Amino acid sequence: MKDNAINTPIDPKQIKGWGIDADPKNDPTYPMRHRMNVGEDPDSKHRPTLQHVDEEVLKSIERPNVSAVFGTPEPPRGLSGLIRRQAYKYSENQYKHWLPMILADRVDMIEGVLDDLAHGHVPNIFAERGAKMDWKYNRSGFFTRLATISLLTAGTIVLFSGKGKNKNKRSKKQRRYQDL
Amino acid sequence: MLAMEYRGPKRVRAVQKPMPEIKHPQDAIVRVLRACICGSDLHLYNGNIPDTRVGSTFGHEFVGEIVEIGPDVTKVKVGDRVIVPFNIACGECHFCRQGMFGNCHESNTEATAVGAIFGYSHTAGGFDGGQAEYARVPYANVGPVIIPPDMDLDDAVLLTDVVPTGYQGAEMAGIQTGDTVVVFGAGPIGIMAARCAWLFGAGRVIILDKEDYRLEFARNYSYCEAYNFQEIGDPVVFIKKITDWMGADCVIDAVGAEAAGNTLQTITGRKLLLQAGSATALHWAINSVKKGGIVSIVGVYGPTDNLIPIGNAMNKGLTIRGNQTSVKRLLPRLIEHVQNGIINPKGLITHRMPLEEVADGYRMFSDKLDNCIKTVLMPPTANQ
């Protein structure tokens, strides 16, 4: 409650523009205000000029056609594209539509890294994550993140190298057993 | 051309991409003069919006100069400087003709629940955005509005989203003279919603957030009471207490999917993506508005489900309104307000960065570093 002290009361009428857009009849307000019944709308089937479909566009099954204009820059591709095509077979009402899409996004991310490497570009993840800003304005946060990443990396290495050793030990025992 | 490019959660960079092309007779190509990073971009940046494809360019808040037009474009011409509303609208469909330019039915093939938005995933139409040197602007006869000659470009760029969305948040709240209005979230949209609540005659405006620097900014910019929800105990009880135990007349959720304040919501909504984002602010809004009150939602959530107390909404007789902002509908009135000095959009801008440093800009805005409220990106061609 410490903020109460600095929240001094104000006379709203002193604020520039106070009440300038007040409208007692503003109920129902937008978006219901100009509600129009589809059945009574003679132009409800009207469509603008259509954009030529010259590449793959995934379409929601909740509409009968491709919209008059659509975005073109990133058509589906690779494994992520396969997953997306499957996802678009289900309606927006279903998890079978959205959850695979999130999976596809993550697969796409990995494909993006592979694509970078294939083009001879090693992504500078440090720069892409804007870590410079953390270094500049949040030094403690920077070191905390760095320590966390280092610990996780070290832990993963130890875990996997440990598993490797166990496998060797087992195989040595097995060999001894076999020797006996 | 230089453009921002998404590479995966929390990874973006500036790269060279092909120039956009005219794909439809009503298309225009715009040379971007200013582009902003929006709080809604963080949902994409964090990987929370399905069908956000690697290689996409974000940016739905931009202004620019028209450099090329399609054969059917008659309302703007090459050389015009225009405000580009963040939503793409045909102006002819059943919804556009009701003023619902944020719900156009002829611009998004991939989803029916949301209209098309520049640079906002394939779920919102798959259009590249304006965090680039150039952008394709469909339906150029409908969306772009010519910037008045006396208007600052910094004011103009905030008229593409922040000002209209804050204004519509207040409008949808159905504020009547003397109403107590609570706004959750002191980001740019929340601050603007609090400022605009006064225009509708609010008697008291209260804003809640967890960042002290944003609360201080809101206090000065929006003339409202500002409270840090981490210091007031249960925010719902607090609001009841300061409203004579009745609750606020109207509550505006200006946070959306990135909300903090509830561990269960944060883990299930933001970390595990089991919800369409963390619905903490909406949960609080429903519980802190008075019986029969109105909840207005301008915070963005994903397309799946959220944990909210819908039983309370029913038992309290609430009206819940939400929508993507109908920027085109609101622009004439808001341009007037800016020209008359009633709203000062550029007062929200705290940082300005070259497009080349877009990754740093996102990180700064996302982590709320250096007291960041609003960042403007400047493409290299902006000063030509």
UniProtKB/TrEMBL annotation, chain A:
Keywords: Membrane, Transmembrane, Transmembrane helix. It comes from the Bacteria. The chain crosses the membrane at residues 142-162. This is Uncharacterized protein.
TrEMBL record, chain B:
Residues 188-263 form the Alcohol dehydrogenase-like C-terminal domain. The keyword Nucleotide-binding does not apply. It comes from the Bacteria. Residues 25-144 form the Alcohol dehydrogenase-like N-terminal domain. Keywords: Metal-binding, Oxidoreductase, Zinc. InterPro entries: ADH-like_C, ADH-like_N, ADH_Zn_CS, GroES-like_sf, NAD(P)-bd_dom_sf. Its cofactor is Zn(2+). It holds the Pfam family ADH_N. GO terms for molecular function: oxidoreductase activity; zinc ion binding. The keyword Mitochondrion does not apply. SUPFAM superfamilies: GroES-like, NAD(P)-binding Rossmann-fold domains. Belongs to the zinc-containing alcohol dehydrogenase family. This is Glutathione-dependent formaldehyde dehydrogenase.
